[in-house]
Amino acid sequence: MDELDINHTRRDLLIAGALSATAAAVPSVAAAQATGTTRNETPRPPVTSKVALIVNGKQRELNVDTRTTLLDALRENLHLTGTKKGCDQGQCGACTVIVDGRRINSCLTLAVMHNGAEVTTIEGLGTPDKLHPMQAAFVKHDGYQCGYCTPGQICSAVSVLDEIRKGIPSHVTGDLTTAPLLTEAEIRERMSGNICRCGAYSNIVDAIVEVSGRKA
Fold it and tell me: Where is each 2Fe-2S ferredoxin-type domain found (predicted)?
């Protein structure tokens, strides 16, 4: 095959590729036109809903976009910025809050799903003048370094002790017919959803053990 044939073949290949790409794009353009989502159309306003929450003991009423997560409602609407946005995918635990007595990742749930719920954030556990015992223990045992994950860690730690008191088993609970023991293995397993990139895990365990009433 001479040079002319090679160039001709390459040109035909590029033309064929361009035609294929155009053909693939045409159905999506047609679909956009059928659903009224062309570029020139004015965007539709978001759907909003009223939500009533009891946050840190106070009744709060919001009117939010139905797509708003509980995390964003707390931070953006109520300005409770102690609850942190880390991964925004439920993997780091920085956004942990307590809802109706159970800890949840607030980035994974919508605010409208919790109408009437009681929500406790780090601001509701204690204040600088009157720390929650878990907050005081974290300070004492240096359970934080950069501090970004600390609000979620503390909310989780408070819930961990409550779970153990209620006899709720974890993945490492050996005997499901008896109440779980407050062991280091239990604490580490239950706290495993809260990531500390500074690596203060052993200090966090010591703080939790102290609040539980055992010696660290």
Answer: 49-125
User: At 136, phi and psi to the nearest 5?
Assistant: -65, -40
Cα-based angle 139, 56, 187 (whole degrees, multiple of 5) = 45
Full-model pTM: 0.79
Which range among 13-17, 29-33, 169-173, 176-180 has the greatest average pLDDT? Answer: 169-173
> Please, which residues have CB within 8 angstroms of residue 63's CB and are 6 or more apart in sequence?
48, 49, 50, 51
Q: What is the pLDDT of residues 54-101, one digit of tens each?
A: 999 999 999 999 999 999 999 999 999 999 999 999 999 999 999 999
Tokens of 62: 């919001």
Query: How does 155-187 read in b/e, with b if 16+ C-beta sit within 10 Å?
Result: bbbbbbbebbeeeebbeebeeeeeebebeeebb
